[in-house]
TrEMBL record:
It catalyses: tRNA(Cys) + L-cysteine + ATP = L-cysteinyl-tRNA(Cys) + AMP + diphosphate. It comes from candidate division Kazan bacterium RBG_13_50_9. Its EC number is 6.1.1.16. This is Cysteine--tRNA ligase. GO terms for molecular function: ATP binding; cysteine-tRNA ligase activity; zinc ion binding.
Amino acid sequence: MQRVQLKLYNSLSRKTEAFKPLKKGRVSIYSCGPTVYQYAHVGNLRAYLATDILRRVLEYDGLRVRHVMNITDVGHLTSDADTGEDKVEVAAKRTGRTAKEITKFYADQFVKDIRALNIELPVKFAWASRYIKEQIELVKRLEKKGYTYKTSDGIYFDTAKFKGYGKLGTSGLAGKRVSRVAHSREKKRATDFALWKLSGSKKRQQEWKSPWGVGYPGWHIECSAISTRELGQPFDIHTGGEDHILIHHNDEIAQSEAAYSKPLAHYWFHNAFMVVNKKKMAKSAGNFYTLSDLGKQGIEPIAFRYLAASSHYRQKLNFSKSALVGAQNSLNKLRVVFFQRKHRGRTSQVYRKRFLAAINSDLNMPKAIMVVWDLVKSKKPLADKQATLLNFDRVLGLGLEDYKPVTVPAKVKALVRERESAREAGDWEKADKLRAQIVRLGFAVKDMPSGSRIYGK
Ligand code: AMP
Ligand code: ZN
């Protein structure tokens, strides 16, 4: 098999680089995981899908991946500026449930969501609250090296002491972090951040003893402590959404590099936002949708996967009903190829070469998807098309292997007949509406010279 080398955009160098793992044939990846106080929205899920494509491409290229993801169950405050309350504690208070109940419930939901999206599970989900010892050790190390100072509400990292703070860029940082005067007169600089927060007079549900008093870890320290513990330092690739670049990831780099005098990760991989009418989809903005919202509209999780997997991870992805219906339609059409199952087909090397070139060019999935459709439309024997698509599906993850044609329910058949009559009468608007209804029920309809054909999920 021909060897290829992945070219990957690195947010650290701001260049597309040839990817070289630290250990031959192996790749270590750390992903900032969810904060488990709410359902994940499809914007969050886009981040995990982008990482899943990265991981699958590396595996397709023959590398062994060790992937670790944290679960933030403590310390993520409602503001990035070390003010506000812990998101989990707020949710607990609001619902009258315990912090443990909240985090367990939403972490379970998250795993269900990523399973439904056919995302390969990390080798480990590392819960922040189970790494308190490691986080305290890291803060102690930073303290010993003179990078910290104490205020009345916690231990802070002194960014002035770390040469080159802001390695991932600083533009826009001032606006993101409110001025120190606004929230804590004791904080020396707006960029300084909490490593350990003290509970003070407030009794919290999740708090631990530490050399500085009872409290809880700052949000950034968990990722540094967990990644170093599970993957070593440096490791290969750190992933997250682009909203984490300025603060969370700059801070992770500062504390880890200050502690160990070596890089935290060699490559930084950031996905662009999923947006709704040009605005970032966010829990706080209230413009978010979950997988179950999509399900109510007849869109399968895998159709959302198709949508996300066919866009480029560094381009904004617009959330729209028509894009989702389009993705569901395309997926249904792709499944048509497997309507009649053939065996002993051969992977087309011509198409595979094109596919390989696309995915290794900074995960150019729009191009890879074009190869998929060129193949589907080609004159290749059906058996070869199936074999080649199944090969590509190791990256696409659409579950084509498991696809089983289903019998078409009477309701769908009736809609198809009604649509045919509408078409015969030249009522295209009605025909389109009926098609949308059919798609919502999970079927695709294709107009052939001999009449309509229905394809199922
Ligand atoms: P959170 O649970 O808020 O920590 O976010 C989980 C992941 O989703 C992080 O990697 C975020 O950067 C990412 N993320 C949040 N909102 C979006 C969005 N609208 N589009 C893409 N990724 C997002
Ligand atoms: Zn993180």
